[in-house]
Design brief:
Blueprint: E1 2-4, H1 6-9, E2 17-21, H2 25-28, E3 37-38, H3 41-45, H4 50-53, E4 60-64, E5 85-88, H5 91-98, H6 103-118, H7 122-135, E6 144-148, H8 153-167, E7 174-181, H9 186-199, E8 203-207, H10 210-214, H11 221-239, E9 244-246, H12 251-265, E10 274-276, E11 284-286, H13 294-303, H14 329-345, H15 349-356, E12 367-370, E13 373-376
Parallel strand pairs: 1-5, 2-3, 2-4, 4-5, 6-7, 6-9, 7-8, 9-11
Antiparallel strand pairs: 10-11, 12-13
Helix pairs in contact: 12-14, 12-15
């Protein structure tokens, strides 16, 4: 298959080609190239494709995946016979890295992103952010919070929301926007730095060798990586004088975690809005996006034409992904799809899952744990 560079594609007449994203739903959720349509690799491999048939045969078809590897291997697909097909060199990641802004464009992007939080997305983003901070008492007078930024949409938005709530001056607290480089390649680190500059986020970067440390681990590398990252964030935040670290987990992460615990872990538990560190005395972890919906985060990202890397470790650069808590994309995506399917018949299913861990009736529980100690209903029967 012929390859086309991003710079070349930008010079093609827009009506001469169709850009097609073949990544899975999990990666597409983190953003697409503007104007592209999504036809997954699985759909293409099934044979005849209604979505493709709707595209004029006079148009060139430009396919892209995450890094340009899978899109180069589509030549033999039956549904593409007779078509003028191309693979976008370096895929979605290459497109994101290719974007550059001059000073004027950066200032405009920052202004638009901040204004959209105050106006267009105030109800969807700032209101639930402020509500979570108040309901769960996440911010206290005199706090010094390390806002942990991975470079993705959730943590970047969280940083902007913290900047916005700090302007309200209802509580005096300090912020440090902390980025850990666990071994990113040069381009990925530059992308995080570029996005931070464009959004007006003054980041502090420290380095670690976590990616190298887990690179040879065969069993549960994502879980180990997540645990190690958490420890490094705590220790560096504490060294900077912080008493809290803030992570970008949102409402959808919470309900998916509840359901995954039941289906895959045989336990009922939730992702807490805040918790004390067991290894770093005096430190707390807070999750201020606890009540913010992922769809609203995506809407804010797309409205402002922002593009973030989902993950950039050695494992995920091959078109897969992991999650901050160490779970694989397949389990989380499977759970996300299950919730979406249940929602078709019950529009309240998401809020019901969320509230289920607020309405636990211990009189109807066979056994539960408290501070590591097990309690059985027969103990007091």
């Amino acid at each position: 298959m012929n390859e086309v560079k991003i710079e070349e594609l930008r010079n093609w007449p827009k009506d001469s080609y169709e850009l097609i994203d073949i990544r899975d739903d999990g990666l597409v959720a983190y953003g697409m190239i503007p104007g592209a349509r999504h036809i997954s690799l699985e759909e293409l491999e099934e044979g005849e494709n209604i979505k493709l048939d709707a595209i004029s045969k006079d148009k060139k078809l430009v396919f892209y995946c995450q890094i340009g590897r899978k899109s180069r291997e589509l030549d033999d697909l039956k549904c593409l016979e007779g078509r003028d097909i191309y693979s976008l060199e370096d895929g979605y990641i290459g497109y994101v890295r290719s974007e550059s802004l001059d000073e004027t464009a950066r200032e405009e992007k920052q202004r638009k992103a901040e204004e959209s939080i105050r106006k267009k997305f105030h109800k969807q983003l700032f209101t639930p952010f402020a509500k979570a901070c108040k309901t769960y008492q996440l911010i206290s007078e005199g706090d010094h919070i390390a806002v942990c930024i991975s470079g993705g949409k959730d943590s970047m938005l969280m940083a902007k929301l913290f900047q916005e709530i700090q302007k309200h001056r209802q509580c005096n607290f300090d912020l440090t926007f902390l980025v850990m480089d666990p071994g990113y390649n040069k381009e990925n680190r530059e992308l995080i730095e570029s996005n931070a500059r464009a959004l007006g986020i003054p980041i502090t970067i420290f380095e670690s060798d976590i990616f190298d440390a887990v690179d040879t681990i065969e069993k549960s590398p994502c879980y180990l990586c997540a645990r190690m990252r958490r420890g490094y964030l705590y220790s560096n935040a504490k060294a900077l004088g912080c008493n809290k670290i803030a992570l970008g987990h949102h409402y959808d992460d919470v309900i998916e975690t509840i359901l995954m615990g039941m289906l895959h872990g045989a336990q009922i538990q939730t992702m807490m809005p805040k918790l004390h560190s067991t290894n770093f005395e005096g430190m707390e972890l807070i999750r201020p996006l606890y009540l913010v919906r992922e769809s609203d985060i995506c809407a804010w990202r797309d409205y402002n034409e922002l593009h973030f890397l989902q993950c950039a470790c050695h494992f995920t650069e091959t078109c897969t992904t992991c999650h901050e808590d160490g779970t694989t994309s397949s389990k989380r995506l499977e759970t996300k799809k299950l919730i979406a399917a249940l929602k078709k018949d019950n529009p309240f299913v998401e809020s019901n899952i969320f509230r289920s861990v607020e309405n636990v009736n211990l009189d109807t529980v066979i056994e539960y744990k408290r501070h590591g100690e097990r309690h059985h209903f027969l103990d007091e029967y």
